[in-house]
Amino acid sequence: xxxxxxxxxxxxxxxxxxxxxxxxxxxxxxxxxxxxxxxxxxxxxxxxxxxxxxxxxxxxxxxxxxxxxxxxxxxxxxxxxxxxxxxxxxxxxxxxxxxxxxxxxxxxxxxxxxxxxxxxxxxxxxxxxxxxxxxxxxxxxxxxxxxxxxxxxxxxxxxxxxxxxxxxxxxxxxxxxxxxxxxxxxxxxxxxxxxxxxxxxxxxxxxxxxxxxxxxxxxxxxxxxxxxxxxxxxxxxxxxxxxxxxxxxxxxxxxxxxxxxxxxxxxxxxxxxxxxxxxxxxxxxxxxxxxxxxxxxxxxxxxxxxxxxxxxxxxxxxxxxxxxxxxxxxxxxxxxxxxxxxxxxxxxxxxxxxxxxxxxxxxxxxxxxxxxxxxxxxxxxxxxxxxxxxxxxxxxxxxxxxxxxxxxxxxxxxxxxxxxxxxxxxxxxxxxxxxxxxxxxxxxxxxxxxxxxxxxxxxxxxxxxx
Length: 466
Known about the structure:
Layout: H1 6-14, H2 24-39, H3 42-54, H4 62-77, E1 81-94, E2 98-102, E3 108-110, E4 112-114, E5 126-133, H5 136-141, E6 151-154, H6 166-170, H7 172-183, E7 188-192, E8 218-221, H8 223-235, E9 240-245, E10 248-262, E11 267-277, H9 287-307, E12 312-319, H10 327-335, E13 343-348, E14 356-362, H11 368-378, E15 384-385, H12 397-401, E16 406-411, H13 416-419, H14 432-451
Parallel strand pairs: 5-6, 6-7, 7-8, 11-12, 11-13, 14-15
Antiparallel strand pairs: 1-10, 2-3, 2-9, 4-8, 5-9, 10-12, 14-16
Helix pairs in contact: 1-2, 2-9, 2-14, 3-9, 9-14, 11-14
């Protein structure tokens, strides 16, 4: 594995840390953790074990239950304390099979996948003409009843960016499209995948139905097949499709969060919470989403516990059922209302293994100098200063929303949405050196936050308007 420039790191440590709450001793220990992370195989071993022995881990499934047992065993073996599962219930779902065919005069098969949580079609499927919409807004603008007897199709493409910011726009059709199409009378909806690749691999992801509006089947086309359908529709605007899906909802099932701690030596009741989500969609083996996150935060905390003495407790939370809608995170907030004020920092790894290149903060203005001191230690790893509006990550956004301070370690996501929610999300896509850089960042960060005098506090709330 690659090593980092220790001379540069030493130079960073020589910068003034006075009045930041970060002792020189803690900064030096963070440097040592960074070096240890370059030779440790803990993170890779965890990732290989999870994706090989468990594989796909659909929220609420038997596989996710096996993943929880796997996590309890690994955390215990690695020396974590208070290892346990906090159970909760959720609505279960089964993917089933899917077939999508174009009718005459251009009969052919299109590659698609059911969206998570979608209902199935009636036996024999649905055959109907397609109505194309360029954007979700175009679908919103369609009159109520205008899609009666039709299949809606939303065709907008996702823009590739380093931070993955194009996803927020592209995913709207996946989440809200089914309810919008049903309101307008559609029998089903298909969308262009919320992804950036051209591997003929459709991207799954959750659909949101709306109470009082009939649920309709929802599926995503691969980007290649979306292009094909666009060409077909130019030849025949009302070309028919036949969609057959056996997806079904299973009622209430069990899930849970797995928790383990490295106990603080001086302030054990104060917590630095590192999160990742244990579940994955069932198409790939959940390597980048979010096996890497599980391995990064677990390995980082393990290294801190093995080689350092954190003053505050470092708590690793492997959230269950993130993919269906942050269900585990919301359960955590509900179950921990009484001790939320003891959390001095939250941060989550949930964006693959791309190298961390920026640190965003969501903390009180008075604490920004403390965060800047931590950043100076991380700068030789390629981590730059970022925005002051961080939520900490996917699951932990529920915790920062409830008042916890947050820092986001922003990763390079240029290629992330080529793999996200597809069968291509497998172990071979992970770069071991990039994974090691993430572990180094999180280990050093967690130790320094845990040892910063005075801790961290949530951002000040905006003053209420008169």
